[in-house]
Amino acid sequence: MPTITREQVKVPVDVMPDVRETYIDNYMKATQGTGRLMLFACDQKIEHLNKDFYGAGIDIADLEPEHLFQIGSKGVIGVLAGQRGLIAQYAADYPDINYLVKMNSKTNLVKGSQDDPYSPQLYDIEAVLAMREAGVNIVGLGYTIYLGSEYEATMMAEAGELIADAHANGLLVVLWIYPRGKAVPMEKDPDLIAGAAGVALCLGADFVKVNPPKPDVSDKRTPAEALKVCSTAAGRTGLVCAGGSTVDAKTFLSQLYDQIHIGGACGNATGRNIHQRSLDEAVRLTKAISSITLADYSVEDALAVFNGEKDFTL
């Protein structure tokens, strides 16, 4: 199992000296002392409305928003990422979860044919700091940038200022960066994903969530091999891949293993693949994912965890 000490945490110099230990505390909590991130993404209730929580192939338990927090509490995760209001409604009942507050969001109703994507910041950092002062276990912030959108400059400026403020208060920041808009013909182009990783580094993010690259037919690299270029371009900003739509557990865990051990990813950021399942199955999947992300289990051993043949705890 990979582990890091507090002394091994690379603390950015924009983290003020008086909150350095707070930043290290939050980093160690978010990564479970491994330096790798298991991010449980629960921000889709705005992003995709109710489509991701109710319908064919989705367990009926997912319609109830508390399902997310039950999974986060009973499963093995690093952080639960969601909007401030969502976390505010349930955090008192689930105080032990590490929370990452998603600072901007948009719905999927406005299509690219109407306008390039822009996700505005929904609240300022003071509202989040007030929740932390009230006792909510907030370890970081999240923000989405649509690179290539005509509004990218606004989003980058918001993200840059947010990261500076977050670090000044000892909080981590995870950027979601997706190339998207009329200027972007191939959203999963490996060079674009590597570029997005570099942007996250230059803005000062601690982690960046990207879509896995998809090489074209003339590119003989596997997606994981292409991802290695992206994770290298990210430098000291840890790169994690979005989980995407729900697939069978073996496929998902195999992809995750390759992303980490071939692609150089330092974790995962998974939402629908987890929460669209029953509570029992979702909890087992968080443990299987974490067994790979946080403990270097093989795919076979992680599948045994998912199938209930062995348990995984930290």
What features would you describe in this structure?
The chain is α/β, with parallel strands linked by helices. The chain has twelve helices and eight strands. It has an eight-stranded parallel beta barrel, surrounded by seven helices. Helix 7 packs parallel to helix 8, helix 9 packs parallel to helix 11 and helix 11 packs antiparallel against helix 12. The chain starts with 19 loop residues before the first helix and ends in an 8-residue tail after the last helix. The model has no long low-confidence stretch (mean pLDDT 97).
Précis, in short:
The chain is of the alpha/beta class. The chain is built from twelve helices and eight strands.
Any chance you could write out the topology, listing elements then pairs?
Elements: H1 20-30, E1 37-41, H2 44-47, H3 66-74, E2 79-83, H4 84-90, E3 99-102, H5 125-133, E4 138-145, H6 152-168, E5 172-177, H7 190-203, E6 207-210, H8 223-233, E7 238-242, H9 249-261, E8 267-270, H10 272-275, H11 279-293, H12 299-306
Parallel strand pairs: 1-2, 1-8, 2-3, 3-4, 4-5, 5-6, 6-7, 7-8
Helix pairs in contact: 3-11, 7-8, 8-9, 9-11, 9-12, 11-12
What attributes does this structure have?
alpha/beta; globular; eight-stranded parallel beta barrel; single chain; 314 residues
Question: What characteristic shape results from the CA principal axes?
Answer: globular
**Radius of gyration over all CA atoms, rounded:** 18 Å
Number of strands: 8
Q: Determine the number of helices (DSSP H or I, runs of at least 4 residues).
A: 12
Q: How would you spell out the order of helices and strands?
A: HEHHEHEHEHEHEHEHEHHH
Task: Report, as a whole number of angstroms, the end-to-end distance.
Answer: 10 Å
Structural class: alpha/beta
Fraction of helical residues: 25-40%
